[in-house]
Specification:
Length: 132
């Protein structure tokens, strides 16, 4: 979990390292950014891709964090759970790098799908453990 939190912070720095200069170059007043998406069309594709990825790191990974806390608090944290967790974290990092650089949707989706299946496996495993 800590590695994914740290990676999210890396993406946060990357987001502002690209967005702030791009907004300045585009002549966007920060007040114009009061509502998300109102100026996105004026920013370069690669800047929007980094921002989109940062947002993605606050969506599905919330399920991961909840599962990890649940497993840790209820005795489900074993070596297999750890392997699934590392696989998920690795998939999110690779997904970020793809989205923030080449942003090929088919490649990005493939990595996302693998990570999603790992997350499903973790959830099913925890359900089977506590309900079984």
């Amino acid at each position: 979990m800590l590695v994914l939190v740290a990676w999210t912070l890396v993406m946060w720095f990357w987001l502002y390292a690209t967005r702030l200069p791009a907004m300045k170059r585009a002549g966007i007043d920060p007040q114009d950014a009061a509502h998300p998406g109102t100026y996105g069309h004026r920013l370069p594709f690669h800047v929007r891709s980094v921002a989109d990825n940062y947002n993605h790191l606050h969506e599905q990974p919330t399920i991961f964090y909840a599962l990890m806390f649940f497993a840790a608090l209820t005795g489900g944290a074993d070596s297999f759970a750890l392997a699934l967790a590392w696989g998920y974290v690795g998939s999110r990092i690779v997904h970020s790098l793809i989205q923030a650089t080449i942003n090929r949707v088919v490649v990005r989706f493939s990595v996302f799908a693998v990570g999603s299946l790992l997350l499903v496996a973790m959830a099913v495993r925890e359900l089977a453990r506590v309900l079984g």
